[in-house]
Automatic annotation (TrEMBL):
This is Ankyrin repeat domain-containing protein 13C. Residues 208-567 form the Ankyrin repeat domain. Residues 359-378, 391-431, 445-464 are annotated as: Disordered. One of its GO terms (cellular component) is host cell presynaptic membrane. It comes from Dermatophagoides farinae. One of its GO terms (biological process) is protein retention in ER lumen. It comes from the Eukaryota. The keyword Repeat applies. InterPro entries: ANKRD13, ANKRD13_C, Ankyrin_rpt, Ankyrin_rpt-contain_sf. SUPFAM superfamilies: Ankyrin repeat. Acts as a molecular chaperone for G protein-coupled receptors, regulating their biogenesis and exit from the ER. Residues 410-422 have a biased composition (Basic and acidic residues).
Length: 589
């Protein structure tokens, strides 16, 4: 059975399974450009608005009106350019693109994307235009935003090069090592989490990163023998795989096992449909460390009556240890775009993992019992003459990972402001959600083939809202009425106990490190490191730090050593002659 659903000037063909067919999307393209009956509109009425473009998008004004409005605003306000206007946030943190996506106005979306509207801007509630596009469920809208995102990433990489060149010129040549260790308080997840020791070398205006961990994304990572090169002398040159001036020739990634290399150019079309399928199949997740209440206090060592400030060697540096107090992680999950089948699949994952964990638990109990029986004859020799409360404390510390301080037993978790508008049939407990998260991580790390990504069709559009512009803009700040698909939202907060080690001996300044990390912001785990180091930290350089990656995973980053070296081989910063170019080796880069 096929039904036609009228939505103003846009119509969709709804299939019997509740989705929209590919044919219906073509039909939408055909009718989406049809304008409504012309209405006389006075641009000056909008110019007096604090957010004129927002209102024009909200009220679905025709494209020629938006064009005239942009021109009028830039003429009246010389300090604003097109980028400032299309990137402006309203009282709720929404950009015009946020609103266009919530309403599903394809013509407005395409117009704003042509103006290079920012797609990573988060509103007060933490959601980007891409998040809202996933909620709306239109494949072509999601794809358009993803394509612009890749283009903007490439442009941003090129824009960072001049500042990076200036930074590199000011720093003497050096070599540095840092270790990444990923931790979780979920037993099953611990088995799959990676670790890595990265080597960073800098010579002149070039630097090199050797790593076995290319990227740690939301639910997946890639391993290998890899080298990332920034070749300063090549800034601005064209790649042999592209004739466009925007395609920088300075950023290269090499696979040292296959002896191939690829210029990082963000191939806009590569694997885009698979990415759309992935996004439409999973929860929208927003994780935000709440840094407003963070404070630092010196960590203590010693016994009760002989306490002193903790200072230890980290790598080759003496470091002062601090406790990070008030470290809270807020996690928001939305799933209004998921079907009952998707939610049922998550429940099936939970049941499978629950059985797996029960088997592991029973095996550990059996092994522990055998160990205790075999060692019982040594009890009279191995007794420890300490009060029982110290034994209990010691055992608890051992079970929880010693001094890591990033496990579930040393943190406090509460549910806050849970909202469910999509029914409770698929609602999981926190334990179930953690296990499902573990399953997704293990699957994306290549350890599990039980979670194939199915092709997704567009969802039928949500019911149109009757909210007026006045009601929207006058709503309490950060609490606007829902304009798109009704949210199915869960909010959780978690208090984490973490530490940081600061050293006065580290030769590199935090400012210089932040500038270098700008290039590595291509990779999410380095981006997280940059964001955390940018906080108001205690004196010194953070040689050891705990960073939240996703709700169930934290990364511990340790700077092992740093040495100035003015005799580095120039060949280290060039592509080896026996390597061949493979423009598709790393599709996401």
């Amino acid at each position: 059975m096929i039904k036609f659903i009228g939505l103003g000037r846009v119509s969709y063909i709804k299939m019997s399974d509740g989705t929209c067919s590919e044919e219906s999307e073509d039909f939408v393209d055909a009718v989406d450009d049809v304008q409504t009956t012309p209405v006389t509109i006075n641009i000056t009425d909008f110019e007096n608005e604090p957010f004129p473009l927002h209102r024009a998008v909200f009220e679905n004004r025709p494209l020629h009106f938006l064009t005239e409005l942009l021109s009028s605003i830039t003429k009246r306000n010389k300090s604003m350019d097109i980028a400032d206007i299309v990137g402006q946030k309203d009282l709720h943190g929404n950009t015009p693109l946020h609103l266009a996506v919530m309403f599903g106005h394809r013509d407005h979306i395409n117009f704003l994307l042509q103006q290079n509207a920012p797609i990573k801007t988060k509103n007060i509630q933490g959601w980007t235009p891409l998040d809202e596009a996933i909620s709306y469920g239109d494949r072509k809208i999601i794809k358009s935003i993803l394509l612009l995102g890749r283009k903007q990433a490439r442009q941003s990489l090129g824009n960072r090069s001049p500042k990076l060149m200036e930074t590199l010129r000011a720093i003497k040549d050096f070599q540095m090592e840092l270790r990444w260790e990923f931790h979780s308080w979920i037993p099953l997840l611990k088995r799959f989490l990676p670790s890595d020791v990265c080597a960073i070398s800098k010579r002149g205006c070039s630097f090199r990163l050797d790593t076995t961990l290319l990227d740690f994304n939301d639910r997946r990572w890639r391993r290998g023998n890899l080298t990332f090169l920034f070749i300063g002398n090549n800034v601005g040159k064209k790649s042999s795989s592209s004739n466009t001036a925007a395609d920088r020739h300075s950023l290269v990634i090499m696979d040292n096992e296959l002896k191939v290399y690829q210029y990082i150019r963000y191939n806009e079309e590569m694997d885009i449909d698979e990415d759309v399928d992935m996004l439409m199949s999973t929860d929208l997740v927003y994780l935000q460390p709440n840094t407003k209440a963070i404070s630092f206090s010196r960590a203590q060592s010693g016994w009760f009556f002989n306490r002193y400030n903790k200072t230890e060697k980290v790598g080759q540096f003496d470091a002062d240890f601090y406790n990070i107090n008030g470290f809270m992680i807020e996690t928001k999950k939305r799933r209004e775009h998921l079907s009952e089948e998707d939610i049922y699949a998550n429940k099936a994952i939970y049941e499978t993992l629950k059985k797996s964990l029960e088997q592991q638990k029973n095996h550990r109990k059996s092994s522990q019992k055998s160990l205790e029986e075999s060692s019982s004859s040594f009890d009279d020799i191995a007794q420890i003459d300490q009060p029982s409360k110290f034994n209990n404390t010691q055992q608890l510390s051992t079970n929880n990972g010693g001094n890591n301080h990033i496990n579930g037993d040393t943190s406090h978790e509460t549910d806050a402001d849970d909202h469910h508008s999509g029914g409770d049939g698929g609602e999981e407990t926190d334990d179930e959600e953690n296990l499902i998260e573990a399953a997704m991580v293990s699957a994306m790390s290549g350890q599990d083939d039980q979670l194939p990504i199915k092709p997704r069709r567009s969802l039928p559009p949500p019911t149109q809202t009757n909210v007026t512009w006045e009601q929207y803009i006058n709503a309490p700040k950060g609490m606007p009425p829902c304009l798109g698909r009704q949210w199915d939202l869960k909010v959780r907060t978690k208090n984490l106990k973490a530490t940081i080690a600061m050293s006065q001996e580290f030769p590199l300044s935090i400012e210089s490190l932040l500038n270098i990390l700008e290039v590595f912001a291509t990779f999410k785990h380095f981006k997280k490191l940059k964001e955390f180091i940018n906080l108001n930290l205690p004196p010194g350089f953070p040689v050891k730090i705990d960073i939240p990656m996703i709700a169930t995973i934290l990364a511990r980053v340790t700077f092992l050593n740093f040495n100035y070296n003015d005799k580095l081989d120039a060949n280290m910063f060039e592509i080896p002659a026996d390597y061949t170019e493979d423009p598709n080796r790393f599709p996401d880069l």
